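User: Could you go from structure to sequence for me? I need the amino acid at each position, not a summary. Structure tokens:
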């Protein structure tokens, strides 16, 4: 593993991996992260090494300054291939001048087979007992699972679920996670007896929380939790947040998820209520199952191997 050193320049953090001592010329292709802050990328280009990039293809989760964006595009165009997370990233790359035939769309994911097996190992009685213990209502329970930080828009979530509970008194919310907003979240749950907080859950404990819920409520950034949603057949309800990570593209409004019309509490609350309507809910669950089969680690690996093979065929080996 290469040692990494952090540097600061004009308030920005730069990363520099120690690449000396490695004969980089022995590699026909080097795959690096698409990141302007990684100084070793510039060193490898200076050595005239053949690079491919791996990454989002565009900036998703924050506003990017014009200068940095131009630098990112210029750097990216020096790559011989691009392994991009999603189709939206490919579109952005092509719009910036990267050749379409040199882009492999990976559909970034992780292996959800273990979670699926853990869910299937839970008995109906076990889930029913858990629901009864925590006063959770079948058909009216949402869960927030993830980091407790501002980008998840938890303030919007609480306002929205107040709206939901006023119209459906059976509605319950589970919050499972940790983060900088933990104390604030605990205060909010204390004044709402129909909201239950759990510490971060993993493995079978996480599977039980998901099994006891009907929908996943995350108004803010939605990333790889989409894969949990598909594996658990628990539709996500989210919002049109402008800074969602790439995996938001896996969600199709009305097919495997519900996306609110805007970022207001009422709009998000109405989206939650819509997702729990019987006919809508059954369609969403079916859509999650289909998506679970489409976004697999096996498919991602196949796309990567295919891209490496095609790239090497195009550029040819360095050595005969």
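Assistant: Here is the amino acid at each position, in order:
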């Amino acid at each position: 593993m290469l040692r990494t050193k952090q540097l600061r320049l004009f308030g920005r953090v730069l990363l520099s991996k120690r690449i000396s001592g490695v004969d980089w010329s022995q590699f026909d292709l080097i795959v690096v992260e698409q990141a302007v802050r990684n100084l070793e990328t510039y060193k490898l280009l200076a050595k005239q090494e053949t690079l491919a990039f791996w990454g989002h293809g565009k900036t998703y989760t924050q506003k990017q300054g014009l200068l940095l964006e131009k630098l990112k595009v210029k750097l990216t165009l020096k790559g011989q291939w691009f392994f991009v997370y999603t189709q939206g990233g490919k579109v952005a790359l092509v719009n910036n001048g990267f050749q379409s035939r040199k882009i492999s769309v990976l559909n970034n994911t992780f292996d959800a087979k273990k979670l699926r097996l853990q869910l299937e190992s839970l008995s109906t009685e076990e889930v029913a007992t858990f629901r009864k213990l925590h006063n959770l209502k079948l058909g009216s329970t949402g869960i927030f699972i993830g980091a407790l930080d501002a980008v998840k828009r938890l303030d919007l979530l609480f306002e929205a679920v107040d709206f939901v509970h006023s119209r459906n008194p059976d509605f319950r919310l589970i919050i499972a996670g940790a983060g900088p907003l933990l104390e604030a979240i605990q205060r909010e749950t204390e004044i709402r007896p129909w909201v239950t907080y759990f510490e971060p859950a993993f493995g079978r404990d996480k599977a039980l929380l998901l099994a006891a819920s009907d929908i996943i409520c995350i108004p803010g950034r939605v990333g790889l939790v989409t894969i949990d949603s598909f594996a658990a057949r628990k539709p996500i309800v989210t919002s049109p947040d402008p800074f969602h990570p790439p995996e938001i593209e896996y969600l199709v409004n009305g097919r495997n998820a519900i996306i609110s019309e805007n970022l207001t509490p009422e709009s998000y609350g109405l989206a939650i209520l819509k997702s729990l309507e019987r006919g809508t809910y059954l369609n969403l669950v079916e859509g999650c199952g289909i998506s679970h089969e489409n976004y697999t680690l096996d498919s991602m690996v196949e796309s990567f191997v295919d891209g490496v093979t095609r790239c090497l065929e195009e550029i040819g080996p360095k050595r005969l």
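One structural detail worth keeping in mind: Residues 297-315 form the longest helix (19 residues).
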